[in-house]
Amino acid sequence: MQRPWGGINEGVSASFNQDFSCVAVATSHGYSITNCEPCSLVYAKGTHATLTPDTGPIALVEMLFCTSLIAVVPEADAAGTQRRRLQILNTKRQSTICELMFPAPILAVHLNRRRLVVVLLEALYVYDISNMKLLHTIDHSHSLCALSPSSESCFLAYAAREPRTDAAAPGLSSHVVLYDLLTLSIASVVQAHRSSLACVALNASGTLLATASEKGTVVRVFSVPEGRLQYQFRRGSYSAHIYSITFNAASTLLCVTSDSDTVHIFRLSPAARIHEPDAALAAKKRPSLFTAWQRQGAAVANALGTYLPATWTDVWEPTRDFAWLKLPSAGMRTVAAVSNTLPLVFVLTHDGRLWTFALDLDHGGECSLVKQHALLHAPSYST
């Protein structure tokens, strides 16, 4: 699942819902929900596109699939508290289900039908969404995390801290913790890259994890919860900052955006899948990192998953993209997703537009632009 991002215009953030059928936009005046195809306004409050009263600046808005339940984080409340209040609202009934206050600014909110996760800079709060009971708090040091949309395979993936080896504070690591939100326990810890993580994503069924590092040249896909390497894709030869990674509903395509002007679409085909190496290579001894994890906690150490030996990159050459599309310019912060019902790719761009491209599912190649919409001025409500 992609992270929400700010910067469409001043004080604006946007994100897709869990099945990429809608876009939620938060602005300095309110928030809106727009259907992707056909592109039409579903709900809005306090935005320029409606006559409803100004709600004040909204920092974040997240949907629960296509239901009437949304999570809203105001930029500030009446007391001037910045981004610390979470509202769970019912848009159909125009009512507030509950409000929660947090000790620090809310950086992100993730939902599925079983769990709600609130992301702060140093903690992740896990709630039962049916009654909003706090189930667990996870110590954390970065907002980088993803929640699987699945209710059955309900995993949270988040960047682990580097084990503390000296007096220096631990930083963001190359490891991903796969946390089971139903049993409230660590399922595995995966060493995804050799440099620090930049992006993580889980597929719709909660069975695959995709990762990219700060280098941004390679995207890897691992099995969940085992953490076995399944696919390795080459985004490019030059470093880039990865903004988003998304799976389509069937987990056959992977969409990757970055600060370049190209959006890459990779095919998760049987031919591209990586098979286990021979027993000798698979049994390669893990480095002293394992010992460091042991010192931090037995539960984490016992869950330590795949280690990527240097020779693996020699065994498997990363697969190139199956399809791609070009944006008007590089450097725009973007989130992209493949439609679950039509051969289309939706791209949210930094300038507040939803771009729709046609995707050839048989032959791939360059996607063609179909249309674009300005989300801040949606013309009409859907029926």
Automatic annotation (TrEMBL):
**Keyword set, alphabetical order:** Repeat, WD repeat
Under InterPro entries, the record lists: PROPPIN, WD40/YVTN_repeat-like_dom_sf, WD40_repeat_dom_sf, WD40_rpt
**Is rRNA-binding tagged as a keyword?**
no
SMART domains registered for this protein in UniProt:
WD40
This protein's GO cellular component annotations are: cytoplasm
Transmembrane region(s): none
In terms of Pfam families, this protein maps to: PROPPIN
Q: Which family does it belong to?
A: Belongs to the WD repeat PROPPIN family.
Q: What is this protein called?
A: Autophagy protein
* Provenance organism: Malassezia equina
Query: Gene symbol?
Result: ATG18
